[in-house]
Predict the 3D structure of the following.
Amino acid sequence: MNLSEAAGMLLRDYHVYNALNLDGGGSTTMAMEDPAAKVYRLINVSTDGPRGRSVASSLAVFAPPVDR
């Protein structure tokens, strides 16, 4: 999916009108906490290998737990 197709899908299917496209290359890594086990783990493996690539910037998102 190219950028234009992704934008169209977000607008059409999810009614998103304001979004941010981030690089999804070899430096991209996602980590999450398992809320039940309280353990952090990597969700993906970088195309640069399991140790990833050293980068000088990051984007972190923190959210409070959701009551169920």
In short: Helices lie at 3-14.
